[in-house]
Amino acid sequence: MQVVTPSPDHVTTTPNAVMTGLAAPSRGSTELSTWQVRMAPGSSGPEHIVDREQVWTVTAGALEVTAGGRTETLGAGDTLILPAGVLRQVRTAAEAMEALVAMRSDGQVSVPGGAGARPLPWAQ
């Protein structure tokens, strides 16, 4: 058994969101990574592809996700399962959003036209 205590060292801030790493290989997990995502109102992440399935559970606010040409809006309590290898974009509307995300710890992300796949730092 391992207890992970929140730490500022586990926080990654990007122009679009703040990710707080929870479980990850660097914190004792061998198979899964989990993290909290916080996005300000009107924020939008880049279009990207993740090579592993992700499960997003919205804990506050609302989230709009476009994946594979389909758009869904989720509110607090809703859970979204995003398949691996599908182009997606995550954005908020008029209110801030928080979600918990789970993924296999070996997942990598790529951006169309970018320099290849890379690991998600908060999931390491």
Automatic annotation (TrEMBL):
Lineage top rank: taxon: Bacteria
Occurrences of domain Cupin type-2 (ranges): 37-100
Protein's name according to its UniProt entry: Cupin type-2 domain-containing protein
Organism from which the protein derives: Streptomyces olivaceiscleroticus
